[in-house]
Design goal:
This protein is α+β, with helices and mostly antiparallel strands. The protein is 29% helix and 24% strand. Strand 22 and strand 23 form a beta hairpin.
C-alpha cells in the first residue's frame, strides 16, 4: 500500500507516530518557510505541514504543488498548537509534519472548483463527472447509497430471503413505458428487451418455490425524463409466497423504520406509517403520494360554495364537480402581485383562474368574490377551512382531476414558500385500496392502474363481470415526502382470473398467449398465492440525502435528455455493426 492510514483517520492518539498518507491536494497555502497542504481522500482531510528547515527537499517540491495533484507524504503526526485546532474536521486536532513528499501525478486546472461547495452548471458537471464525483458532497451521497443497499441486503437475508439475479436480456412485452430494444445478431430481425422490471420473472420464481426472493435490480424504461426519473434505474425487487397484504406492508415498514434509524441522521416523524385509501389521499392532499411533513390539508367546500351566488362555484357543483380549498397560515397579507404569481402557478396545473379569500386581523374577509357570499356563508367557509386572522384561503373549482392537481401544486408551492417541509424529517405513509382499472376513453377499454398481474380484492371478484370500475386492486404504494418510493401488490395466481383481466384490458387470447404464454403455462403447475413490492433505490437515497433529484445519488446518470455528456452516448453505430445485426437506419425527411 502507498499509505499506512487514510486522510480521515488520524487523531490525537496517533501523535508521535510516523505515517504515510496519499491523496489529492484539496487546498494549499504557501507561507514562505512553511507550506500547508490539505490532503484529501474518500475518508476525509488531513492538514500537512512542510517546514523548509526540517525537510528542505519536500518544501521545495511542496511550493510547486497545486490543487488536485496526487501526492504521497511521509512524516510524524503532531498535535496542532493551542488555538489552532479545526473543530470542523475530525482530524482537526493534529497535523502531519512531513519529512518526505512525492508527486504521484500532476493535474490540470479543473473546469470547476472541487474544494468549494458552489453552484456549477449541471451540464459541466455531467461532462466532467469523474471530477464532480471527487467532491465530498457527492462522495457522501454514494457512500450513503452503499450503506442503504448493504443494510437492505443484510435485513432481508436475516429474514430468509434469497438474492437471485434475473436476465437483463428478456422478451419485449409492450405495456406502460416503452421498452429499450436490443437486436439479436444470432436471430436476424428479432429483438431482446431490457427489463422495465423483473415482474414476470419474480413471479415465476414464486412458482419455482423460492418463497422469499429479492435482488437489487437494474431496470430500463424509455420514457420522458424528470428529476426523479432516469432511463436506467435501480430498485429493490422483492417477492414473497403465501402472504397477504399485511405481511408485505409489515416487512417493508419494519425495514424502512430501521433503515432511517440506523443508517441516517434523519428524523422519522410518522410511526406507525399512516394508511390512506387512494380516495382519501386525493381528497385530503390532492395526490396519491402526499407529503405528511406538514399540514395544509384540503377541505371540501362544495356544500357551501354550491349555494352561493358566485356562478363559477355554483355551476361547478351543479355539474357534479367539487369546490375545494387549502388554508395557508400567515399569508393573508399577500399583495396583488403575489396572488397573481399563485394564479399563474395554478394555471400551469390546469386551473382556469384562482379564487382566494384573505382573513384580515379583525376577522373581516378580503376577496373579490366575497360579495357573492352571504355573511353566514363567509363565516361557514372560514370555519370549514380552519382559517384564523392572517390566513389565506385558496380555492379550486373544476373536475375532480383538475382540482386535485391544482391544490396539490399549490400545497407544495406554499409549503416551499413557508419552509414547512423540513429536509431532516422523513414522513412515510401507505396508500391502499386503489381502483384496479382506469377507463381509457381513447381505446374504449380498461387499463390496469398498476400492472396487469395485480390481483383484485377477493371480495370484488364478482364485479369483474358486472362493474369493473368499482373493483379495488390489492395494490399498495409507499409514499415519502411527496414522492412514491415503492409500489407493489398481491398478484394474480389463478390462470382463469388472469385471463379475465387480459380480456378486460383488450388483450385478446392470441396476443396474451404470444406475450405471456410462459406465465400462463406456469400458472398451471401449482402457483402459490404471492405478492411483492419494488422500492426505488435512487429515489429513496435521494430523499435520505436531502437532494433535489436522483442524478445527485447516481454515479454516472443521464441528463434530462437521456444523454451521457461525458462519454457521448447515445452515439452512432459503425456500419459494420449494423450489418452484423441486420439493421438499416432510416432518417426522417426533416433530419436529412
Amino acid at each position: 500500500m502507498l499509505k499506512t492510514h487514510n486522510c480521515g483517520e488520524l487523531r490525537a492518539t496517533h501523535a508521535g507516530q510516523q505515517v504515510t498518507l496519499a491523496g489529492w491536494v484539496h487546498r494549499w497555502r504557501d507561507q514562505g518557510g512553511l507550506v500547508f497542504l490539505d490532503l484529501r481522500d474518500r475518508w476525509g482531510i488531513t492538514q500537512i505541514k512542510v517546514d523548509q528547515q526540517t525537510a528542505p527537499d519536500a518544501h521545495a517540491l511542496a511550493k510547486e504543488v497545486r490543487s488536485e495533484w496526487v501526492i504521497q507524504v511521509t512524516g510524524t503526526v503532531i498535535l496542532r498548537p493551542d488555538g489552532m485546532q479545526n473543530p470542523d474536521l475530525p482530524t482537526g486536532d493534529v497535523e502531519l509534519a512531513v519529512s518526505e513528499l512525492k508527486v504521484l501525478n500532476r493535474a490540470k486546472t479543473p473546469p470547476f472548483y472541487i474544494n468549494k461547495d458552489e453552484k456549477v452548471e449541471e451540464a459541466l458537471r455531467m461532462r466532467y463527472r469523474y471530477l464532480d464525483l471527487r467532491r465530498p458532497a457527492m462522495q457522501s451521497n454514494l457512500v450513503l447509497r452503499h450503506n442503504v443497499i448493504r443494510f437492505i441486503r443484510n435485513y432481508l437475508s436475516e429474514r430468509g430471503f434469497v438474492e437471485i439475479e434475473t436476465p437483463i436480456l428478456f422478451k419485449t412485452t409492450p405495456e406502460g413505458a416503452r421498452d429499450y430494444l436490443v437486436p439479436s445478431r444470432v436471430h436476424p430481425g428479432k429483438f431482446y428487451a431490457l427489463p422495465q422490471s423483473p415482474q414476470q420473472l419474480k413471479q415465476l420464481l414464486m412458482v419455482a418455490g423460492y418463497e422469499r426472493y429479492f435482488q437489487i435490480a437494474r431496470c430500463f424504461r424509455d420514457e420522458d425524463q424528470r428529476g426523479d426519473r432516469q432511463p436506467e434505474f435501480t430498485q429493490l425487487d422483492l417477492e414473497m409466497s403465501f402472504v397477504e397484504r399485511e405481511d408485505v406492508l409489515d416487512l417493508i415498514e419494519g425495514m424502512m423504520t430501521r433503515l432511517v434509524e440506523e443508517v441516517t441522521d434523519r428524523e422519522l416523524v410518522t410511526r406507525p406509517f399512516p394508511r390512506l385509501s387512494h380516495a382519501e389521499a386525493l381528497a385530503r392532499y390532492g395526490t396519491d403520494k402526499p407529503d405528511l411533513r406538514y399540514g395544509l390539508e384540503i377541505v371540501d367546500l362544495s356544500a357551501i360554495a354550491g349555494q352561493t351566488e358566485f356562478r363559477v362555484f355554483a355551476d361547478t357543483v351543479s355539474a357534479g364537480n367539487p369546490v375545494r380549498a387549502i388554508c395557508v397560515p400567515g399569508c393573508g397579507t399577500y399583495s396583488r402581485k403575489q396572488l397573481g404569481e399563485l394564479e399563474e402557478i395554478a394555471r400551469t396545473a390546469g386551473a382556469k383562474g384562482l379564487a382566494w379569500m384573505a382573513i384580515e386581523e379583525n376577522g373581516d374577509v378580503r376577496s373579490p368574490i366575497a360579495k357573492f357570499f352571504s355573511e353566514d356563508q363567509l363565516k361557514a367557509v372560514v370555519e370549514r377551512a380552519g382559517a384564523t386572522p392572517g390566513d389565506l384561503i385558496l380555492f379550486a373549482a373544476d373536475t375532480e382531476t383538475v382540482v386535485c392537481d391544482v391544490l396539490d401544486t399549490l400545497r407544495r408551492e406554499m409549503a416551499a414558500r413557508l419552509d414547512l417541509a423540513d429536509p431532516n424529517k422523513v414522513a412515510f405513509c401507505w396508500v391502499i385500496d386503489f381502483p384496479l382499472f382506469e377507463w381509457n376513453a381513447d381505446e374504449n377499454r380498461w387499463d390496469p392502474s398498476h400492472h396487469l398481474f395485480t390481483a383484485p380484492m377477493w371480495e370484488d371478484l364478482a364485479l369483474l363481470d358486472s362493474d369493473p370500475g368499482k373493483v379495488r386492486g390489492q395494490q399498495y404504494d409507499l409514499a415519502c415526502n411527496g414522492y412514491e418510493i415503492a409500489g407493489g401488490s398481491i398478484r394474480i395466481h389463478d390462470r382463469a382470473v388472469q385471463e379475465k383481466v387480459f380480456g378486460l384490458i383488450g388483450l385478446d387470447e392470441a396476443v396474451a398467449r404470444e406475450r405471456f404464454g410462459h406465465m400462463l403455462e406456469a400458472f398451471e403447475f401449482g402457483t402459490p398465492p404471492h405478492g411483492g413490492i419494488a422500492p426505488g433505490i435512487d429515489r429513496l437515497v435521494m430523499l435520505l440525502a436531502g437532494e433535489p433529484n436522483i442524478r445527485e445519488v447516481i454515479a454516472f446518470p443521464k441528463t434530462q435528455q437521456a444523454a451521457d455528456l461525458m462519454a457521448g452516448a447515445p452515439s452512432e453505430a459503425d456500419l459494420k455493426q449494423l450489418e452484423e445485426l441486420h439493421i438499416r437506419t432510416v432518417v426522417g425527411e426533416n433530419e436529412r
